[in-house]
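YM 10:42: ATP-binding cassette sub-family B member 6 sequence, as discussed on the call
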Amino acid sequence: MVFMQSYCETNSSISHTWVDEGISPCFYFTLVPTILLTIAFFLGTVHCVCFQKYGTAMEPKFIPRSRLYGFQLAVSVLLLVQFLGGTVWRAATAAGELPAYVVLYGCFSALSWVWATVLLRVERRRVMVMDRTRGHSTFLLLFWAVAFSAENLAFVSWYSPHWWWKLENTEQQVQFGLWLLRYTGTGLLFFIGLKAPGLPRRPYMLLINEDERDVENSGQSLLGRTDPNQSTWQGFKHKVRLLVPYMWPRGNVVLQLLVVFCLALLGVERVINVFVPIYYKNIVNGLTDGSSWHSVAMTVCVYVLLKFLQGGGAGTSGFVSNMRSFLWIRVQQFTNRVVQVRLFAHLHSLSLRWHLSRKTGDVLRSIDRGTSSINSLLSYLVFSIFPTIADIIISIVYFVTNFNAWFGLIIFICMTLYLTLTIIITEWRTKYRRDMNQQDNNAKSKAVDSLLNFETVKYYNAESYEVGRFEDTILKYQVSEWKTQASLALLNQTQNLIIASGLMAGSLLCAYFVTEGKFQVGDFVLFGTYIIQLYTPLNWFGTYYRMIQNSFIDMENMFELFEEEEEVKDDVNAGNLLFKDGKVEFENVFFSYTSGKEILNDVSFTVLPGQTVALVGPSGSGKSTIVRLLFRFYNIQGGCIRVDGQDISKVKQSSLRAHIGVVPQDTVLFNDNIRNNIRYGRITASDQEVEEAAIAADIHDKIMAFPEGYDTQVGERGLKLSGGEKQRVAIARTILKAPQIILLDEATSALDTQTERNIQASLARVCVNRTTIVVAHRLSTIIGADQILVVSQGRIAERGRHEELLLKEGLYADMWMKQQQAQDSDSSSDTETKDRASEKLQPPPPPPPSGHHH
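YM 10:58: structure's back
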């Protein structure tokens, strides 16, 4: 029969925490279940009440099916059974006296795990409606973390005869087996709990809103689409896979050797960090023990050499660190260059549709922040985070081995608390940083947009309105910035408190052992030196983590730009266009910019080599779209477009566009001189060829009249030139390119009559013996076309020559009549105005002679 005569074993007391080089079992097996039950009962009850009162039952379709969740639940039940079974076994095998703490341990532990298992089920079925996070609650993660940490404390008692490590009898072997089961189970629950397999991966309200959202919103730009509450580390593997090619310089052996050498120097720094405090300890011991001058001098010289390699205080870097930073410059430059070039090339490969919908300010800010953040990210990860974690592990092993387990435990607890709270608070701060970036983008976007439309602002006297809008965006940015800085101050204070607590606990313990004669004075110096040396990079760990997280946030938009798919791609087996005569065919072409709204409907026509075909019709009928499709800015939804019998979707875009010249309606020039703007038609052209093209475009004399001639700067988008001058520069470009097919998209619609006539004459010379498609607004400019196509509502309503279409008396005849009437009206009003002006200038007629009557 089992009796419980006392709470602890014979000759033992719960007040004795350290017995025979280990933690007292009575103290340990009382403290651990009490803490677990306290967490489970108080926090768990509050958690459960909140779920029942403020939560709602999740719809089954939003609960992911997961075998890992079933495993998680099974492990929880297994641990519960283990506690009950272990207690029963201890009671059954007790020879006489069974300490009361064994029963308390089994009962308290079982109760706490029952509560944790119940809450695991509750979280599976109910959710807090306004919760903007994902994953398990803080309570469950804390419970599993404490349980796993408690099992790790058993290692501190490795040399104690009161524990089971020696496995000398059946009882110790069974207890060791039960501990192994607990250790494995609590560790699995903690790490699986971080993944939260049985719960939705995103906030529940977000899932509901996405489920109800209209499908048409799916076509929005990727920029700014990121969920503000998602973790920065989401998709970490994917982001790292994108980063690795930029870090490892493929094809460059010298840079690869530099990367390897820098990593080797990193390892050397870790070794030096261990030996610096050791030699400092030897100096102190040598001075206190009365060692010879020669021995002390040698130790001091080695110490100074190590400090020179490691670096001194006040943030100065050592020789090894400086050498590594110097060698890493080339690798950093390689990374920066490759990222920017690849992104720039990718943006140029995107479709016209994307470029028409982009916000230039947003894109530029995303590129700037993204490219600069990649270098920061690689530097912080490789040279700050990983070395700091390595230093922590090395220090724990060193103190456990050379001091005792208490020092290793102090460092482990401090580091764990520091890193955990840093990560938790920084993750919480993420939304503020991301919102600050968004407000920054908005401010810069509005500024760029306003400056680009400077003339419009002046026309409508809206300077004060634009300044007010810009100030509003700055104020919103500053609100987000304040939240970011305030949360940063909170994080710094938390870190400072943990560091100070760990330093105080370790220093007091070390000083106690020195006073007891177990340690030397040098050991106290070693501990203080090592711990401060360890805390220095650890103090920056929060900054490193924040900078890494900020870099990930800054890179998100850039990654989204990289992931933006090319709409118009070359076919896998695409070859070059084999140009022969320049025959263009549209066969049953269907096209729409957005689904449900057709722009072209069953369009078919043929342009023979050397012919000029004109496209006319009302605005929005699809004329310019036909030109864009031939240039392959978009893919068609049906039909086929051929050049010399070759489907243009089966040939390379570059080879197709090399044979096509475009003179657009709105010519935009680069902010460069006139010579380089004309030379853009063919980059390799000489100055003489550029001038010959300008002569052919009838703009050479005009250019020579400028004070700087061909070196005249045209300004941003060519705003320093008039509309006619810009148009002739575009024509000169096209002449220099010498294409076989020419597309004119209402090239003269916005010009005055005289300028239009001059440019028409220039275009006529360009288009001789070339296949030409003209989109025209003024019908008088295309009377001589070989074929005129009248486009109406996406279809070709009429076709023929000018005279034939007039005889049909259809849409073309009606358009011609209206334009003639408008022209006659303008002419008559001009004549009437001139007559009135001349009448005002003529003297009044003389009065009739008196006495004469009529």
